[in-house]
Amino acid sequence: MKIYFTFEPRPDLKEPLIEEFPNIEFVFHSKLDEGQLKDIDVLVTYGEDLNERRIELASNLKWIFVASAGIEKMPHKAIHECGILVSNVRGIHKKPMAESILAHILSLKRALPFIYENQQKGEWNKKAQLSELNGSTALIIGPGAIGSEIGRLLQAFEVYTIGCNRSGEETPFIDETYKIDELMSVLPKAEIVISMLPSTPETRHLLTYDHFKQMREDTIFLNFGRGDVVATDVLVKVLEDKLIRHAVLDVFEIEPLPKDNKLWQLDNVTISPHFSSHSSRYVERSLDIFKPSLRKWLAGDDNLENKMEILRGY
Hints:
Elements: E1 2-5, H1 11-20, E2 25-28, E3 42-45, H2 52-57, E4 63-66, H3 76-81, E5 85-88, H4 94-109, H5 112-121, E6 137-141, H6 145-156, E7 160-165, E8 176-179, H7 183-186, E9 192-195, H8 209-214, E10 220-223, H9 232-240, E11 246-249, E12 269-271, H10 282-298
Parallel strand pairs: 1-2, 1-3, 3-4, 4-5, 6-7, 6-9, 7-8, 9-10, 10-11, 11-12
Helix pairs in contact: 4-6
Organism: Ureibacillus manganicus DSM 26584
Pfam families: 2-Hacid_dh_C
Protein name: 3-phosphoglycerate dehydrogenase
């Protein structure tokens, strides 16, 4: 049996994996080599290196383990037609992403950009608008594993947390939950709005200009889910019209964000290059999901953690 990694883990992670599964042939490359695809049984990938042709070349492929939460760039139909099982690492991003989101919120509440700017200019300037996170209300759109972790950290600051999901069912560390259909009426309740939505046909351009008009003028909007939940031109108009206080964006419709995009020119937006989930422990946490799943799969059990419905996109 052959398992092909299209990235190479650190030696301290790779060597224990090989020792734990001595009867498996592991191949590790820093990028996908099409010559390896013909006889592999399992592919471990970040997902962005797959297309219909490569799925066709991998005629023996039975399972794709995606070391990422998003699978929107993968050839869904081709994978489904070949009956290939897909699972991912949903949930491992929650610690670094929640910390990133909290850092951005605190930075804006406590005027850290103002402090850094004046330090660079050598100015002693106390004329900043400071506010507290304590006592705020935060709305998390799509409160899954990451959203729950964000809720846990926010509640430590005595923030009231609201969630919006498809079902309206309760989520850990969320004080009250509504259905996504009720989003328009919920938006005015919060001065922090966080989108953690995945990219699906249902979520594409879900947030419109009218949604932002429902938000409070002092709202901090953060998008750390997927960039196509709101059209770029809508975001630009929202920020130019100053409907909200500030936007923090880690994801975009087009990545990298083009240099000529108007978002770069605005002073009420923070642009992060889609790396809020990055951490020195990323691959370590990915393998913590992969290894138990591999043991189950070798025993004939395909009910793996984070098994995905590829055509639904999650």
